[in-house]
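Hey, quick one: can you model this chain's 3D structure?
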Amino acid sequence: MTFPASPVFPSRRLGAAGLASLALALAAGCSGGGNNSGSASDGQIGPPPPAPVYAAEIRRTGFGVPHIKAGDEAGLGYGIGYAYAEDNICLLAGHIATVNGERAKYFGAAGATGMTGAANVQSDFYFRLVNDADAVAVALKAQPAEILALLKGYVAGYNRYLEQTGAANLADECKGQPWVRKLAEADMVKLVRGYAAFGGVGQFVEAINGTQPGGPLLRAGVRASGPIGPPPAPPQEVARNPMTPEYWTRLHARSGSNAVALGRDGSDNGQGLLLGNSHFPWSGPLRFYQMHLTIPGKLDVMGASLAGLPLVNIGFNQNLAWGHTVNTSAHFTVFQLQLDPADPTKYLVDGKSRSMLRKRLSIDVLGADGVLRSESRELYVSDFGNLVQIPGMLEWKNGVAYAVRDANLDNHRMMEQWYAINRAGSAAELKSAVLRLNGLPWVNTLAADKDGNALFLDVTVVPNVSSAQQASCVPAPYKALAAYGLFVLDGSKAACDWALDPAAAQPGIFAAAKLPALSRGDFVQNSNDSAWFSHPEQPLVGFPAIVSVEGIALSGRARLGISQLQARLAGSDGLAGKRMSMAQMQDMVLNNRVYHAEHTVDDLLRLCAVDKSGRADDGSTVDLTQACAKLAAWDRHANLDANLGLVYFAGMWDRIGGDDSVWALPFDPADPLRTPRGLKVADASVAATVRAALASSVRDANRQGWAAGSTWGSIQVAKRGGRNIPIHGAADRYGVYNAIGSAPDGKGLLDVTEGTSYLQVVGFDKNGPQAQAVLSYSQSTHAKSPYFADQTERFSQKAWITQAYTEAQITADPAYSSKKIAE
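Sure thing. Here's the predicted structure for all 823 residues.
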C-alpha cells in the first residue's frame, strides 16, 4: 500500500487524534489482507469511530526484520514498541525492572544484572539513586514534542502487545511472571538514563553502595589497587575497579567496535562505503535489534538499536551511512572532598562548609523463603556528585571523601540527537546535527555519504577540564592516572570544578566545536583507541587528556585495520587496483587474522627449536612437542578450521600480553603502527617467561580435554537450544578485528558471551544504498521464535544478508508479511 507524504497533513501534538494517523488508519482499513486490528470496518452504521491516536503498519522480511511505517512519530513509536515486544518482551521487561531498582524484588539478592554487572541489591540502590523521581521528571520535560510522541507511542505499542497476548501466553522466558507489566513514559526515561550513564557512573555501582563516613563497607573480592599510575593488568580481585586504565581497556574490549568510513578516494566507485562492526554483549539490554523506520516524506532509516530505543543507533538512510565505536573520552570525574573537621558529612569549598545530602533509600528483597523484606541504605550526594569509596584508593576517612560526577546524567538530548542523525542527508548534515546538539553519550561517530565524504567525530558529553586544570587541580597521587584521562580533582577549590563555556550544550562540558573531528576523501577509522590516530597522515593532537590521549600504544585491532587499509589503498596487498570494494571490506572484517600472532609466533617457534618442554606456573613440566607442531601448522587466523595452535597461542598471550618487558621492539610513539612487536626471546629471562606461559596454556588445554585434532569451530560455540553453533573470531586482546569473547562452560566448550553483534557494510550507487548486514545473535531472545538462531547460523557461515530497503525489495522478499495495528 502507499502512504500519503506527510507534508500533506498538519502535524499533531500529543493527545490529539491527528489527520496523519486517521489517514493511515483508514488506509489500513481499506486495503485488503493483513491483520487489521482496531481499524474501521466496512458497512458501519452510524457516525464514524474516533480517529486512532496510534496507527502503524509492521511489515516483516527475512530473519524477522520489521519495516515499520506510520504517518507520524506517535504511530512510528507504536509500531516499534509492538514489534519489539513480539520478539523480545521478556528481555525488555527484565531491564525495566532493573532501571526501576526492582531486581532484588523479583529475582532475589544474588544474581547480577546485565547492565551494570553488579549484584541485584547493589544495582537496585544505584538505580533508585540516579533514577529518582525529580531527575526523571526533569529529563522527561526536556524532550521535544517529536521525541515525546515516539516515547508515548512506544509505550502504547508495547502495552498493546502485552494486553492482546496476555501474561499467561507470553514466551516461556517470562510467561506469567510478575515483573512483566505495562510500561509508562517514565520507564523509558529511566532506560535512557541507564544507557547514558553506562560509560561513566554506571561503572561505579559497588563504589556508590560502599559509602559510609569513617571507613569503607568492604565488598568481598575488592582490595586496594596498589600504586597510583599506569598499573599492569589488575588481579582478578580488582577487576571491577573503575579507577584503573586497564578497567576501561577491558570494558572497551567487551563493548567496543570497529568502524571504517571510505570516501571518494578510497571506495571502488568513488561514493561512500562504510563498515560498522559493533562489539557488544550477546545477552542483556545491550543487544541490538534490527529495524527499518519510515514516516513518508520525513524519515526512512534502517539499522539497529539497543533495547527499548525507538530510533536507529547505527545504520543508513537514502544518502548516508554511519556507525559508532565506544570512545576513550572520560565522561565523569572524581572529586576529592576536604571534610569539615566538625562533621564528616560536610565538606569545604574555598573554606566554606557545605552539607552532603543524605538519601535514605529502601528496596524490596525476595528471600530464599519467598518472603519479601525491606532493606534500607543511606547514600550520600554532594554538589560534586555521588559519594564513592574504593578500598585502598578512594576512602572516606582521614579528612577526605570522594564523589563521582557524570556529565551524561544531565544529557537529556540523546534521543533527539539520534533522531537528527537518522534524518541527516549527508556527512555534513550529520556533523552539523552533532555539533549543534552534542547529545551522544560515549561513542565516536564515523560516517560516509553517497557523494564520497568520510567523517570521524569524537564529539560526546565530556567534562570541561582543561590541560591547565589537569596541571593544577589533580592531587599528586593521582597525576599519573590523569595522563590516561582518569581524573581526580581537588574539590576544595571552586576553580577546580568543571569550567563553564557558553557555547556548550549543557553547563560544565566542552563545547562540541572544540572536540576532535576529521573529514577526508580517503578513509577514517577507529577501533576504540583515542581520536589521535584516526588517520595516520593527519593525527588529531593537542586535546586535553580527558578528551583524547595521544602518543600511547594502539590496540592490535587498530593496527590491523589501518595496515589493511593502507595496503589496499596503496595497491601493495597483491590485489588489482588501489581502491576498496564492498567485498574487500567484508573480507577485512571477517578474515579473522590474529594480529599479535603474526609478529610473535615465529619467535615462539624459535624457542621450540631449542627445547620442546616447559615448566607451567604450577611447577609441572609440560611436553610442548604437540604445541610446537600445531603452532607451526597454524595459519594465524581465528577461523572455524583453526587448529589447536590458536588455543595454545591464546593461553600464552593471556599471560604475557600485558607485560611490556617481553617486546623485542618496544612501543615507539613515532612508529605506533609497527610497535611494539616481536618477542625478546634472546633474553634468557624473557624466554623463560614465554616458555612458562606456553606450558601453562598447554596444561590448561589438556585439562579441558581437547583432542589433538580439535578445531576452533568445535570449541567456541553459541548455544541455541540444544544446538552448538560454531563461531569464528577470537578475543580483542589477541588483535582480532572480528572480536569475539567466550568463556568456559564447564563441559569442554567456550560459550560466546560478547563481541561482533550488528555487522553492516553499506555502499551507494545510482540506485541508492546497497547494504549487507548480519545480526550475529539473531533478532529474538525467545527460544521458540523462528528468529532465535537464524542469523547466528548465517554469521557462523560468514554469509552476509542483503538488506531489503526499497519498497520493491521489501514486498518482493519471500518472507514478506504485513500487519496493521491501530488504537
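One thing worth noting: Residues 1-43, 216-238 have pLDDT under 50 and may be disordered.
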